[in-house]
Amino acid sequence: MQSLKISLYEILLSLANAQDLALPEITLHHQQVADLSLRLAREAGLPLADQKDIYMAALVHDIGALSMRERFELIEGTAFNMHTHAVRGAKLLESFPPLRRVASLVRYHHTYWNNGAGAKDKGCPIEVGSHLIHLADRICIKLKPTKNILSQVPDILAFLNEQKGTMFMPELVDLVADAGRKEDFWLDITNRLPGQEYRQNLMRDYYLMDIEDLVELSKIFSHIIDFRSKFTARHSAGVAKIAERLAQLVGFSAVECRMMLVAGYLHDLGKLAISDEVLEKPSKLTIDEYNEIRAHTYYTYRLLEPIAELRTINEWASYHHEKLNGKGYPFHLAGDQIPLGARVMAAADVFTAVSETRPYRKPMPKEDVIAVMRNMVENGSLDGRVVDILLANIDELHTLCLVEQEKAGQEYEEFLAHS
After folding, report:
1. Is the domain of 249 the same as that of 174?
2. Boundaries of domain holding 110
3. Which backbone phi and psi does 358 adopt, to 5 degrees?
4. Of 51, 83, 40, 42, nearest to 65 (Cα)?
């Protein structure tokens, strides 16, 4: 793992797909906007490096819309402040140095052209790529999935011409009109057939990450997952650090411990597909709501599955609700089918969950935490050896969890305050 190089493109594609899972109204929206943005960048003759950055920015352009409610408002065009999520997204991305230019493109992707005033922000130039992504995003939002794409072209062009110079940069509207004379321009927007070799070959080596890059990026992912709610804002930070330290105590190598940290940050990736109401419900869940929650580890697994280099990390992250007795979910693995890393993750997740505030209860006292974990060993849910090691170091791990969650809480408050 230490010597492997992991594609940043493939990781961000998983994040984009995770966000699109939440709303069937925008199936593959981020991928669609990214593909159209890349096509427009090529038609405009922009340098190859610019094409790549524009594609990556379009792929994650709405990551600052943390809640499902915000994402739906963006689709409907009813968001109170369209720029808020753009600023949030940029703030998340710019903390990872390889994505700082991408962050700048995301920051301004809802800036109106406004007869040229949108060319700058407080005297600083706004790149054409931001305006290009804005145009691509609005085109994709306008599309009606049940109607033939070619039949929609006149209405789309009429909308663009109506907003030419106000919402959109005139040169980009003209570019669409010119490129749109070819049917393939429009058909490519809704194409879901295998292929897209140009895009895949172009982006695969955009930036190749090592394990420390992956740690930094997965922490950003954890913020996107957890910052949706004040009740979850600290969860992944606690799980990740507990899992990393517990893995060390169990005897994992230094590199494996870093892999465990990544798995901890990503273990709830599939919760991006869960509704806000279910995540924040203060009372008992209905059967349907509980089943919605139970699906999150399945989504985590399928989202990370295409990335071969993350297979081990994926298993550690996605199997954290499997049980040794085979009564876990979603795959009902049992015994030796569950790798040791997943057993460590499961113990870390339970320990963190019962030690933190939830919408429906306060943190459990130490003696109750011990009782819960002992009981889960007895009924075949958790690995006895792993839990013994955890409980033998419970004070250290509890302190570590509190410290990490306090940091995450401060990061959450600062994130909201400056968005």
Report:
1. no
2. 7-203
3. -125, 165
4. 83
